[in-house]
Amino acid sequence: MKKTFLISLYILIFSIFAISQLFQPPIKNSYITASFGEYRDTGAESHFHLGVDFSTFNRKGESVYAAAEGSLYKIWLNDPLYGNAIFLYHEDSDLVSGYAHLSVFSDKISKYSQLVQNEFGNQRIEIVFPKGKIPINLNEVIAYSGDTGEAIAPHLHFEVLKQSQDDFTMYDPLEFLEYHEQRDKSLELMRIRSNNKYFEVTENGETVVEYTGNYPRIDIRVREKLGDNSTILPKKVSMYINDILTYKMDFSIIKESEIYKADAVFGYGSTSSIYWLKMYSDDHLSPIVINDFSAFSYETSTTLNGEIVLEDIWGNEKVYKLKFIKP
Ligand SMILES: [Zn+2]
Fold first, then answer.
1. Going from the N-terminus, what domains does the chain have, and what CATH number goes with each?
2. Fewer Cβ close by (within 10 Å): the C or N end of the chain?
């Protein structure tokens, strides 16, 4: 009994260790410019950003490497969002890695796409391969970076997903990547919006926010700055009211079927680099992990203590004190 427990503990620890460095960065000596779950107001409909973006130093033609050993799974051509994209299947983890906005595929892969492309021209095409049929090595050059699909400038979009019954579960790729963020990191709560009024946040004091109704329904403008050149979305955002964890968002998992539900999480004024998060919701969505205002349903006091906690994937945390008052 004890032995079995020890062995399972060993397997558990080992698998956590193994999963944390499952993938190598698909662009070498690069850094991320966008994170998982960010708002995108570009394209036909607003949506969630379901991967991370790697800088290709504004160049097309940078080598794109397979993040792990696997096999060719899917090719997309001329997708309005992804442009030209490659998906690899990784049998060990049952995960799929995706690479988008590519300019050209490697010779080995374009052999398969060229015939179809000649036939169908610029239409959106998906080619699916039998899993395991076309092996791909770790760090094999599979393509060259570009700006096809929805890309303002050349970069590489990288994602990690798993097929479930009738949907895909999209994961924050940073949880699987061997990636070391070297730049200075700064989590920031910048402004608060309540009943269409804006409240400036005081860094080390208490920000007073007016509200009406039984409990506050606020939007908060947040970001994490990485060095001087990137702004990403904080990974977790929690709100405590009178020390009760009332609302929490965690951008670790989003279902592919939820891609166009970004407006349930992001408030008006949000763009691809400005994130107004709604700290309340009437919807159920994967990133909303706690949504329970029941403790305040019959609240009669006119002052509530609030706290907003921002967290990133590297273990940094920032806490802001609020005082909610009824004017
Ligand atoms: Zn992207």
1. 18-175 (2.70.70.10), 185-325 (2.70.50)
2. N
